Amino acid sequence: MSERLGVTPAQTVGPFLHLGLRWPDGPYVVPEGTPGAFWIRGQVFDGAGAPVVDALVESWQADPDGRFDHPDDPRGARPPAVPGFRGFGRSETDAHGRYALLTVKPGPLPDPDGAIEAPHLTLSVFARGLLHRVVTRLYFPHDPANAGDPVLRSVDAERRGTLLAGPAPDGFRFDIRLQGENETVFFAV
Amino acid sequence: MTQDTADQTGNGLVLPRYRRDDVDAHPPLLSPGYKSTAVRAPRQPLIYLPHRLTEITGPLLGEGRLGELDHDLTRQHDGEPQGQRIIVHGRVLDGDGRPVPHTLVEIWQTNAAGRYRHAVDNWPAPLDPNFDGVGRALTDERGHYRFVTVQPGAYPWKNHDNAWRPAHIHFSLFGRAFTQRLVTQMYFPGDPLFFQDPIFNSVRDPKARERMIARYDHAGTVPEWALAYEFDIVLRGRESTPFEDEDDDE
Ligand SMILES: [Fe+3]
C-alpha cells in the first residue's frame, strides 16, 4: 500500500478564525494554579510595525522532564510529569496584537545526532494574509543548554536573538515580527 | 520500524520520518494578488529544520473537546437554519493513503446568505438566528469524518474591485504530529467565482487546487433530506515499512 497522494494545500485562516478556533481553555498549556507555571506574553507585528489583531499563536512542547505523551516518541509515551499538562496551547491575538500562554518550562531533549536540544516551545502562527502557517521556536534566556542547541546553532548569530524570550514580571516576553526589521526566524518544517 | 526508513544514530533514538512537501504543494507566502500577504509574509528565507522530537510528536486531542451536536451545524439551535442542507464527509489520510484515525477536525463557515456570525463581518446580508457556522468532529478508526450543515454562500471582500470569495468551508486539522498540522479551505465543484479569487489561485499547481474542491457525492445523499459532498484531506506522509502498516491497522 504505497499509493502516493498529493497533500491538500494550506489556505489562510482568514479574519474570522475565532469562530472555529477559539477555545476558552486555549491559552492553558497547564491548568491555572500549577506550581511553577508562568505566562508567555507577546505581540505579533506585521512588516509595517502594526500589531496583527487577527492572528492565532499555537504552541507545542515537552513536559518538564523532556517527555511527550505520544506513541511516536521512541523513548515511549509517558503521562505528563505535571497534572493537567496538555503540551499544546492556543491563543488568539487581541486588539493590540497580544497573545498569552500559561505554561511550565519544558525539559531539554536528546537530539538523534547525539546533541542536546535546549528547552524550547515550537510555535505556529496563523493569520489573515498568511496563506500557510509560519513556524518558529521560543528559547529561554540564559539557559546554559542554548549554546549547544543544534537549531539555534543553525541560525545566523545576528538573527538568533529573535528566538530568545525576554524576562517579564509574570514569566517571559516573546514578540513575533512577521516581516521587516528584526524579522523573526521562521523555519521550513 | 527499520533502519532503512528511520534515522538510527549514536544515542539510539529512532524517529519516524515525515516527507517534506513539494515546493508547489502549498501557496507561496508572498502572493501579490492577495493583498494582505504584502505586509504579513516573511521576507527572509525559511530556515530548514530537521524533524526532531518536538516535530514528530503533536497534540492528540480527543473526545473531551467535542459536544454531542458539534458535528451537526443544523441542530445547534431550537430551529433549523435557512438554506440547502448538505452532508460534508470524507477521510483524513496521510500521503501514503493511510487513514489518520481519531484526529480532531474543526470547521467554520458562513450561513446560507454568505455571512459569518462574527463581529467584524458586517456586510448587508442577513444573520441566521439558527446558525453559528461552527463544527467539530473526530475521525473514526478509518479516518472518516462527517458533518451536517448548510451550503455556505459567497461573500464580498475588499481585496480588489468587486472581489467575491467563492463559497467555502474553513477546515483545521491536527493529524498526529506537529509536521502534519494543516489549515485549509474546502471549495465546491464548478464555482463560477474561482477565476477571480486570489486565495484559491494562490496555489499555483492546478492539480493541487483540485485537491481543495469537494466532490458532489450522489451516492452519499439522503433522499428527501440532504445533498452530499465528499472531501478527502491528505496530510503529509510518513516513510514506513509494510510491517508498520500492519501495526497501524486497527
Ligand atoms: Fe472565509
Automatic annotation (TrEMBL), chain A:
<keyword id="KW-0560">Oxidoreductase</keyword>
<feature type="domain" description="Intradiol ring-cleavage dioxygenases">
    <location>
        <begin position="38"/>
        <end position="180"/>
    </location>
</feature>
<dbReference type="InterPro" id="IPR015889">
    <property type="entry name" value="Intradiol_dOase_core"/>
</dbReference>
<dbReference type="InterPro" id="IPR000627">
    <property type="entry name" value="Intradiol_dOase_C"/>
</dbReference>
<dbReference type="InterPro" id="IPR012786">
    <property type="entry name" value="Protocat_dOase_a"/>
</dbReference>
<feature type="compositionally biased region" description="Basic and acidic residues">
    <location>
        <begin position="64"/>
        <end position="76"/>
    </location>
</feature>
<dbReference type="GO" id="GO:0008199">
    <property type="term" value="F:ferric iron binding"/>
</dbReference>
<comment type="similarity">
    <text>Belongs to the intradiol ring-cleavage dioxygenase family.</text>
</comment>
<dbReference type="Pfam" id="PF00775">
    <property type="entry name" value="Dioxygenase_C"/>
</dbReference>
<feature type="region of interest" description="Disordered">
    <location>
        <begin position="62"/>
        <end position="82"/>
    </location>
</feature>
<dbReference type="GO" id="GO:0018578">
    <property type="term" value="F:protocatechuate 3,4-dioxygenase activity"/>
</dbReference>
<protein>
    <submittedName>
        <fullName>Protocatechuate 3,4-dioxygenase alpha subunit</fullName>
    </submittedName>
</protein>
<keyword id="KW-0223">Dioxygenase</keyword>
<dbReference type="InterPro" id="IPR050770">
    <property type="entry name" value="Intradiol_RC_Dioxygenase"/>
</dbReference>
UniProtKB/TrEMBL annotation, chain B:
<dbReference type="InterPro" id="IPR024756">
    <property type="entry name" value="PCDO_beta_N"/>
</dbReference>
<protein>
    <submittedName>
        <fullName>Protocatechuate 3,4-dioxygenase, beta subunit</fullName>
    </submittedName>
</protein>
<dbReference type="Pfam" id="PF00775">
    <property type="entry name" value="Dioxygenase_C"/>
</dbReference>
<dbReference type="Pfam" id="PF12391">
    <property type="entry name" value="PCDO_beta_N"/>
</dbReference>
<dbReference type="InterPro" id="IPR050770">
    <property type="entry name" value="Intradiol_RC_Dioxygenase"/>
</dbReference>
<dbReference type="GO" id="GO:0008199">
    <property type="term" value="F:ferric iron binding"/>
</dbReference>
<dbReference type="InterPro" id="IPR012785">
    <property type="entry name" value="Protocat_dOase_b"/>
</dbReference>
<dbReference type="GO" id="GO:0019619">
    <property type="term" value="P:3,4-dihydroxybenzoate catabolic process"/>
</dbReference>
<keyword id="KW-0223">Dioxygenase</keyword>
<feature type="domain" description="Intradiol ring-cleavage dioxygenases">
    <location>
        <begin position="88"/>
        <end position="116"/>
    </location>
</feature>
<dbReference type="GO" id="GO:0018578">
    <property type="term" value="F:protocatechuate 3,4-dioxygenase activity"/>
</dbReference>
<comment type="similarity">
    <text>Belongs to the intradiol ring-cleavage dioxygenase family.</text>
</comment>
<dbReference type="InterPro" id="IPR000627">
    <property type="entry name" value="Intradiol_dOase_C"/>
</dbReference>
<dbReference type="InterPro" id="IPR015889">
    <property type="entry name" value="Intradiol_dOase_core"/>
</dbReference>
<keyword id="KW-0560">Oxidoreductase</keyword>
